[in-house]
Predict the 3D structure of the following.
Amino acid sequence: MKSKLVSDAPSAQVHVVVLDSGEEAFGALTKFANDAKVTAASLTAIGAFERATVGWFDFASKSYRKIEIDEQCEVLCAIGDIATGDDGKASLHVHIVLGLSDGSTRGGHLLAGIVRPTLEVVVTEAPARLRRRKRPELGLALIDPAATA
């Protein structure tokens, strides 16, 4: 296990980001993180989508299997982090649980979601830099606590 203390003070900035109907959530949050120059943060969200795509990571193929949700769904829980990717831009990693009209759920990595009517996101920015590096042997980009952004 690797770890890095990113803040031992109460000086983290907290952003509230509210998305409107029709916005694509993953793209909008990535744009926010880049515009705000976020380099290390956690995020949580609640709200709803008119449709969404989540992914399940398949280690054998080193790719995400897409799970399409083509109906109105509630964002019951979304948690994730933001770090700087290999390209120097914000890299989001968000897991999500979506509630369907019959009470069942779908979940996975958030790949896309069209907001309806809103998505309320809390981004807690740490006064640090985290770096997400591509791990070719896994097919994933993971946070490397030893790396500098």
Observations:
- Residues 13-138 form a domain with the 60s Ribosomal Protein L30; Chain: A; fold (CATH 3.30.1330.80).
- Strands lie at 13-20, 40-58, 63-69, 73-84, 90-99, 105-125, 132-135, 140-143.
- Helices lie at 25-35.
- The chain has a mean pLDDT of 91.
